[in-house]
Fold these 3 entries.
Entry 1:
Amino acid sequence: MKAQNRNVKENKAATTIVLGVTGSIAAYKAAELVRRMQQQGWDVWVMMTEAAAKYVGPLTFQALTKHPVAVGRCEAVETSVYQHLDLSGRAGAVVIAPCTANVLAKFAHGLADDVVTATVLAAAGPVVVAPAMNERMWRNPATQANVQTLKDRGVLVLEVAAGELACGDVGAGRLTTLENIMAATAQAMEQG
Ligand SMILES: Cc1cc2nc3c(=O)[nH]c(=O)nc-3n(C[C@H](O)[C@H](O)[C@H](O)COP(=O)(O)O)c2cc1C
């Protein structure tokens, strides 16, 4: 009986989460986020913008997730030709953390010029966005309009936190806590 239960547990497919990492100084926090997601039993696949790969090496995420990491333009990705479609179609959620002002704007306008933006545009399930940027970038009406556009479309855009920013300014723009990102992702998946 015990062995049977174990088999049932082992056969249950883990929820796939796509974690998109973009070119923010907060990108290093995504490595810890991967660990938290794995502790939740989620199977995490990481995708990065080209800029993000300058902040944290793809190898870090590859080692943590045990999956290849897609970086940059879709046609340059060596892992799977249609990785942006394959993963976005079966992921329980697509989480972008940290999300730059630039990528946020691309999402709002439906651009799909790299593996992260193409994956979000093709997402079949919930999308969670955790922005991180300088306060002036965050408060810029263009960014605020982009946030509103995404929220109106049902994207879960998390609030930024206030405090000391990496650039030395103090204000709103810090990546929210990993706890908040985890809770929002779980909630987004529950609601479908
Ligand atoms: C040290 C440093 C830190 C940066 N941090 C951020 C940030 O937190 N948020 C942001 O929107 N842009 C930030 N930028 C600017 C982005 O890296 C830049 O806009 C880049 O083109 C973003 O590329 P991506 O959006 O394709 O990842 C930073 C730039 C530098 C040099």
Note: The radius of gyration is 17 Å.
Entry 2:
Amino acid sequence: MPRFFVALLLLLVVVLGAPTYAAGASASPDHVTLSWTADPATTMTVTWRTDTSVTTGTVEFSNSDARVPKAAAAAVAHDFTTDLGTVCLFTATLTGLTAHTRYTYRVGGGAQWSDAHTFTTADPRTHDVKFLVFGDSQSSPTGTAPYGLWRTTVHNAYAANPDARFMVNVGDLVDTGQSGAHWEAWFAALAGVGESLPVMPVVGNHETYGQPGSGKPSYWLAQFTLPQNGPAGLKGQVYSYTYGPVHCAVLDSQQDEEKAAGDIFTPQKRWLDADLTASKTPWTFAFFHKTPYDIKADRANPTVKAAFCPVLEQHHVDIVFNGHDHGIARTFPMHDGAAMARPAQGTVYYIAGRSGGKTYADLQKKPWNTFFYNPLDQPDYLVVEVKGQTLTVKAVKQDGTLLDLYREDKTTDRSTDSQATPAAVGTN
Ligand SMILES: [Fe+2]
Ligand SMILES: [Fe+2]
């Protein structure tokens, strides 16, 4: 081969093979995700990423009133390094928004802008809200459709519930928390939903994996921008927010995985007690990953139960949403381990099932369950809807088939579950 062509070939190898930026990221914004770090009626937080060639970012936004000029908010940028390389993450919180108003926005800068997306601010006077809850979405990051089941679940859920105001993942979003490939696939699957539906996730044990020693869910913390009102050392992992008639408290159940940080339960118990004491909403929900009322044949979470349940039940949290067991299960209203007859007497614990690929064959209905289904056939999601004094929780298969329909009415202190009676349970 002539020397010129050898030199040209070597040059091409050097140029094309040179490390540039983390796989997936480019100068064009992606992973555009909404969340709240402050009041849902007057603020919205937007997070996105680019490669490291971009160092500044802006959110341009406007409401539907053409008389109001378009506004811009500068983003805070920081580098984020994974096993795939370094990217740049941006976050901006839009403030002073008009309540109950639809906004259009785009993110980026210069010649690199995202598509235009929309969101609607909360109506602080509303008595109604609907939101979606997803069980563990952890899946394989390889193959022709990585995290494809999660993609179908979240897209089907939002298409069937375009009036949902936010979504919650109850932990184990990915199978290996410190793995860039898993998050690439997870965010790619979320694209088309997370730009218009605020994402308020919960940390699970798998978010701590892939980083020996610390147990800290580092990738999760870097990529989600969440309320910083939790206890010291656990901010972003533990937080709360209020949307109209609903207060949501998010906890971290991973004492075993995060033991390098010391005792994470005691500060959460103190924080939760103060948070729920201050909350005056008609409905209160809590979210954490490891369920106190398990459905596995060989696994329970007694330390989680001992830490959180007394505080949750003392404040009469209406429903606790959990993950970890990958099955769909609802309990009686529980108080101090006993099943109660009426909703006002206890807290219902609801395991959300699975929104991704992982299943367990050894799930079983336990004495405390009034509904149980092992979703081996297809993934599922929950639709939670508050309308004034009534609450509805639906468990729905990925294809839309209704599995569970649970209703509570605070005016009558009745639930619609007529099949089961607490006399069948006893204490545990
Ligand atoms: Fe899981
Ligand atoms: Fe888990």
Note: The chain is about 15% helix and 30% strand.
Entry 3:
Amino acid sequence: MLENQKKDVGLYGFTGCNGDQLTIIHSEDKLLDFWQSVHIKSFSLAKSDNDDSDLDIALVEGSISNQEQAEHMKEIRKRSKKLIAIGNCACYGGVQAMELGSKGWDQRFRKVYGDAFFELRTPIESKPIDVFVDVDFYIPGCPINADQFFYCFAHLIQDHVPTIPDHPVCAECRWRENDCLLLKGILCLGPLTASGCNAVCPSHNLPCLGCWGPVEEANVSSEFNLLKEKGLTQEEIKRRFRMHNGSGIIKPLKKILGVL
Ligand code: SF4
Ligand code: SF4
């Protein structure tokens, strides 16, 4: 690509483990092409001469957990033509947005931090980034899958909209000819979870925990009822549903079942 046609790109991380940025950094075989195909204006995990210039594409990982992050997120949105959420925390809020427990956020927060005084940050309930700004595209995963990320990135820098699978993990699991864990009464979230990981957990006899986030049109009530039939308690099911799916699954749970 000619130098003057290259997009200006920034990568940012909010609350999370940095696993999505690390997935990119650890893709050594693709890193040179990635770096040379665009102008990387900001990538604090990988370079020190970052700037706050206008961007064609901002890639954002992590959820928003304090007022200062919310302001920074809005500032990035203002100077970016496209905003892409990468990873479960940015897309759905991650484990820090699971709203576990029946009490409100203030009480849950106090239970962990007591009356601690936060001098530099003003904590708020952790939420995915689209609660604060418009998001143009979502690349899910915990962390993202490198192949899926670079496929999407190659499309985005050429102003094409990538397509990512809209079927559940179960489809990939069946293609791999695994025995179904759910039918054995094991709490697997494959039917509710977007695919893209090649069903890696059930292929190793481990249930899917939902880390890719909810698949479009996930039939939450059907899986909920099936798990209850298998003898799992409502509390066990709710806890597992919320683990990685944050507000992505809490909304349909509230709507369909009214069980929070
Ligand atoms: S093991 Fe899990 S992911 Fe695989 S088919 Fe059964 S429910 Fe779906
Ligand atoms: S099988 Fe489920 S928990 Fe495992 S990586 Fe895939 S989406 Fe995540």
Note: The mean pLDDT is 89.
